[in-house]
Write a sequence for this structure.
């Protein structure tokens, strides 16, 4: 059944417009508090956020909701999403909450929830919370006046996370002699990310570290990595690292400013870990959007590529169910379950840098492990209806798959956040791939009434 508040990654939308309003967020906190208030211990929720202006509005609403349910609250301020997941486990909290819309513009915001194990909530848990939110108070047991929660700030949260991230770098290794551009997107990692690389010995060129509440992800960070690339060249740096607004994903640039996406990062880490016999589950977990070149490369080194639907939650779920420890998305979400429960741009970067240091090779050589198969992605906007259910579209998709054959791949899917049909094809013949995509877009546009 369609859900009213939760989408593919928590609750998200335009700030101060339903469902991202103080009133709804208050109800969300109360419902989540009821759902995760278990046992007789003093319950605790950890709340972190990115640097959006609307965070000042949503943070107190969440705090009030949890306190009303008798839960204590620890406020950590602007911190990366993976930091909040880590602190939730470290503090033995019952819930972790991140106020962020990730890579979206500052006008958007959202709420991500983590359970006491540090993992994002399952669909079943989110549906149970929604039912409590819409129950007009039924099922909610407010705390008595003498049992209300308390709120406090955790002043050493940044230091805890910095040390946690540094511990994932091989012992005895340093980043001495490397100059690194670190673009924090004016987001949640603006304070901690430069510290991690500097304390490990690198010369750091910080970019995107002056948040003003409205400039998060604006012409910077993982969504605009060209800025980071330009700074790498301008400063003669060895590499660049661009994070998104909540620092759970990254894009890397080599010394020439050329970009390396999440597929290359996964391939690089897989190669290193395979040589150390560290890859669990016999392969890497990625999504249907990962390049065919990655799949072929992994097969060549004895690893499988398992594909899931788009979304880091689906990757994590498969990894947990089948005991994998390496997965991610082409967009730069890299999940390394030996270290954390969700994507972490800083930890992923350090795993790549560990290979750079160990092999004494430039990141462009270490991290460019395969030649991508030509891939084309186009979007078709539609207004209502279900174009993918149209018989003409189904027939066209079948013909396209036949044309690509075994040397190519076709992915057609509806966006989970916008009224878009995404058409992606890849194959060894770029001309054929272009023709296939253009033909399919035309048929889908006609079915959508364009």
């Amino acid at each position: 059944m369609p859900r009213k508040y939760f989408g593919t990654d928590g609750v998200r939308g335009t700030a101060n417009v339903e469902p991202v309003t103080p009133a709804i967020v208050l109800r969300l906190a109360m419902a989540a508090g009821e759902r995760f208030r278990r046992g007789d211990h003093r319950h605790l929720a950890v709340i972190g956020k990115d640097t959006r202006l609307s965070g000042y509005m949503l943070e107190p609403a969440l705090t009030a909701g949890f306190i009303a349910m008798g839960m204590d609250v620890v406020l950590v301020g602007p911190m990366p999403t993976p930091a909040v997941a880590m602190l939730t486990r470290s503090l033995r909290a019952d819930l972790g909450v991140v106020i962020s819309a990730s890579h979206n513009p500052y006008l958007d915001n959202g709420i991500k929830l983590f359970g006491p194990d540090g993992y994002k909530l399952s669909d079943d848990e989110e549906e149970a919370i929604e039912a409590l939110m819409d129950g007009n108070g039924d099922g909610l047991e407010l705390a008595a006046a003498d049992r209300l929660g308390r709120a406090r700030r955790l002043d050493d949260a940044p230091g805890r996370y910095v040390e946690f991230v540094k511990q994932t770098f091989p012992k005895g290794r340093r980043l001495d002699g490397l100059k690194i551009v670190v673009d924090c997107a004016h987001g949640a990692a603006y304070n901690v990310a430069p510290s991690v690389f500097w304390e490990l010995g690198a010369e750091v060129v910080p970019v995107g570290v002056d948040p003003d509440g409205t400039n998060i992800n604006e012409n910077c960070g993982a969504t605009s990595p060209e800025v980071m690339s330009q700074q790498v060249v301008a400063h003669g740096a060895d590499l660049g690292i661009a994070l998104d607004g909540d620092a759970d994903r990254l894009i890397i640039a080599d010394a020439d400013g050329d970009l390396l996406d999440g597929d290359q990062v996964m391939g690089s880490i897989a190669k290193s870990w395979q040589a150390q016999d560290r890859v669990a589950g016999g392969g890497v977990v990625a999504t249907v959007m990962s390049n065919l070149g990655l799949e072929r490369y992994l097969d060549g080194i004895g690893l499988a590529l398992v594909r899931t639907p788009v979304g880091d939650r689906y990757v994590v779920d498969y990894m947990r169910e089948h005991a994998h420890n390496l997965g991610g998305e082409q967009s730069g979400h890299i999940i390394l379950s030996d270290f954390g429960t969700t994507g972490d741009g800083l930890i992923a970067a350090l795993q790549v840098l560990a290979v750079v240091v160990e092999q004494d090779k430039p990141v462009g050589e270490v991290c460019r492990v395969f030649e991508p198969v030509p891939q084309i992605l186009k979007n078709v906007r539609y207004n209502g209806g279900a174009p993918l259910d149209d018989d003409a579209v189904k027939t066209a998709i079948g013909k396209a798959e036949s044309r690509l054959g075994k040397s190519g791949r076709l992915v057609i899917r509806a966006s989970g956040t916008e009224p878009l049909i995404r058409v992606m094809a890849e194959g060894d013949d770029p001309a054929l791939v272009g023709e296939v995509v253009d033909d399919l877009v035309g048929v889908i546009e006609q079915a959508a009434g364009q």
